[in-house]
Specification:
The chain has 70 residues and is mainly α. It contains 4 helices and no strands. The radius of gyration is 11 Å and the shape is globular.
Length: 70
């Protein structure tokens, strides 16, 4: 889909922008992405809310970017 690569890149950069934080907290601290849909996606994907960015597989980043429609 057009623009997906850019959306995934923005999401990954935001997720890794704060060291030693969970994915939800890192995105909350970044401020550009609403963490609520991310937390819901984590739950639906069977991942804990304490999941860190490095634990997300590449195909999961794409699914998450699609979910939150960046």
């Amino acid at each position: 889909r057009p623009g997906e690569l850019e959306a995934v890149e923005r999401l990954v950069r935001a997720a890794f922008s704060h060291r030693r934080k969970t994915l939800v907290n890192s995105l909350r601290a970044h401020g550009a992405i609403d963490p609520a849909p991310v937390a819901a996606w984590l739950a639906r994907s069977g991942l804990q809310d304490r999941t860190r960015a490095e634990a997300i597989a590449p195909e999961q980043w794409l699914a998450l970017a699609r979910e939150i429609a960046l």
